[in-house]
Amino acid sequence: MISQSQNGNPDAFAALFEQYKNLVYKTAYLMLGDAAEAEDALQEVFIHVYRSLKSYDPTKGAFTTWLHRITINHCLNRRRRRQPVYQPLDETLASESFTIRFAEQEIVWKAVQRLSDKQRAVVILRYYNDLPYAEIASILDIPVGTVKSRLNLALRTLLDALNTPGTEMELPI
Amino acid sequence: MKDHEIHQSRVAYLDGELTDDQRAIIEQHVAECPICQYELARLQTIQNETRRTLHAVQVSPSPLAWDHLQARLMKEARPSRFRLFTHNRQGASIMKRMIFVSSVVAVVALLLAMFFVQQDTSSVSAQEILKQAAKQQPAEGIQHIRSENYNNGMKLNRDAQNTVNIMESHAFVESYLDPQAKKFRTVMTDADSGAVFYVSAFDGETTYSSEGESGSPLTVYQSSLGAQEVADSIPTTFKNTQELFEAAQNDPDVKLLGEETWLDGRKVYVLRSEEVFKLDAGEEPAGYTLMYFDVDTYKLLETQTFIVQDGKEEMDAYNRWWVDEILPSSTPIDWGLSDVEGITIIEDTTGEHVDQLPITVSAADVIASGGIVYLLNPVPDGFTEMIQATQPKPSSEEPVTYIITYSSEAGDYLVLQQSAAPDTLRDEADETYQTANGLTLSFMADESAGGKTFTAALVQTPDGSEWFLTSTLPRDQIKALADTLAQAK
Fold first, then answer.
1. Disulfide-capable partner of A32 in A7, A37, B181, B421 (CB 3.0 to 4.6 Å)?
2. Pairs of residues, one from chain A and one from chain B, whose beta carbons lie less than 8 Å apart
């Protein structure tokens, strides 16, 4: 499908979009926290994919790694343009955008949204996309050690956020 | 491993990212360190919660995402071409200009657009392409079409004299048509907002229509009135498309400009017609239409209409057919629109919101109901006569109106449609003719399209009713026939 798309087969590209649209959209949504922004990111990512598909070399890594790199980079650039200074996200964001079944998850979601963009990227790639550190490092073009330290910091930040008064998350005492 | 290194490695340990040796060191340390046991438990909890939370977020892209992407890809692929078109002068051959325009511009344009245009070296003629396109008889099954329509409403407003005000519109249209089962559905969606703004459907028994409605959610009226007429009207849908291609085939002004390869790899024939296909009332602006046919299937993929004003050409409208396929008859289609989001279906018991389609009646029916129609007596040789009556809306006090159609096997026709004419139309008449029976014909300037000339006239009858006459027959023949028009008694 990928090589057929590279050869300009429109049906193959349509199939490629169909197969990966949810992955790209969800990753973008988790990164950006906004449905309209994620929708726009989905379009931009696939336009980028369409334009540069010929430059994708399967011998240099999996297609999904390449796709994740485009998606995450696009989201990071987008956030940079939109929000140059760290800014807490709207409190109501999580509950308005989608349905989270449990209060705990809503708290975690808000805390994830408050992470720095770089930390959120590693958290999403690791705990949503379930990618090994080496692949995350390749996607973000950083050393594996940096992935490790960012995850450490991110989880620490999440723990701190959840231990603040008013949150009722049950953590081991 | 030092203590701080052990602390830094707890997350990696939980993620299974350590070597066996590193694992062993951590496990040995943790077994003896209650603080690390506590920290590991907390980290594991937050990891699990984070994982669960991120997976619990339930979002999905818009169902129109692919349509939007395709539209954007096409737009991106062709901006340079549109710019070139805009600067072309009336009458110039667009494709030739593209090839002979200064080589630098041409090369840049071609690189940007990522497609190329060949000169007309193909052995296929425009007429042959149109013949092949017209040949495509609908196969057994359900016709599924997804198209994109854009109309730049600005162009007509430029003329200060022209008060026609058409909004710019950009829409996606998805339609299913089953001519055998006599069912159809059409849903039109605004390309920018994704909102449904028009639906029309018939599931064999019930009609669904949002005619005249707007707003969100869109109100759709459901009615079982007039179902038979709707069912009867369905076969003509295919016929109209066939006729369009056939008309273009007979038009000597339709030319094959060449072949293109689109960004997505499809090869297309480009045909140019000097007609401006516009549905809008009012004066037809000067311009032309490009038609793109798939080289392999001869399917029409796109039309683009350009308007020429003050020596400049600008694109006025385009239609793109993204999907044009025949689905098996057994394909489940929700003809009753229950899967369409953003609409509210309301039962219309009085038929107030149902489109009033003409019903075929006999002259005796008209007379019995107190109606007045004028018929050609006798019916001209080779022609057949059909009388149709259109009922007004239940709440309207308007009378029933009639359409009289005479048509021949050869494709000629004469149609009289009852309708009050606007004054402006009467003022446009270039000749008035009085018939022996006291009817007045006000002839409009002859129109030419598809290589044929059409006659149009406004007919006023002694009882005060007004009719539009349109015909493929020449004016002199219409005058002679009009002398035989007499009230049916």
1. A37
2. 120
